[in-house]
Amino acid sequence: MNHFIFDAETDGLYGSTLSICAKVYSENLKEVMDCFYGAVHCIADEITEPWVRENVFPYLQNAGSMYRSEAELLEAFWQFWLSHRQDCWCIADVPIPVESNVFRKCVEMNQEERCFLAPFPLMDLSSMLYCKGMDPQEERQKLAKMEIPLHDPENDVLLCAEILRRILQ
What we know:
CATH topology: Nucleotidyltransferase, domain 5
Strand content: 15-25%
Order of helices and strands: EEEHEHEHHEHHH
CATH architecture: 2-Layer Sandwich
CATH class: Alpha Beta
Number of helices: 7
Radius of gyration: 15 Å
Number of domains: 1
Number of strands: 6
Structural class: alpha/beta
Shape: globular
Helix content: 25-40%
């Protein structure tokens, strides 16, 4: 099975989705086979949480695709997920509440058709670290041995993939 690794950034833990990055990695986690990176076009004043305005907003322009609304971003991400769901494990780092809510919102956009199409299981990198006897609260850059900024979802996916690669070796 391939690995569908994704990260999302939201306006607060339960707020609107601002950006999502997902990369499909080969079974051995050495090759990126496909990528989605999108963000909602917004201005800083539209973000309600000061921490998000300071730590997430600066990276939104890094997204490969910009969307006019959260609904458009979620729909594009959902279509990307559907194109890979049959042959991938889905993995996120600490997926509750942010990443799990992304899938919940996607399903709720058309619950009748999407009810059983979200990932099962949605695997958690932090739980894997705990099971390996590692500290799940350890800084991700330290675990991955990579010095890249956090809260850009593409960087967070890269860190997750590298840590997962190390865990599975």
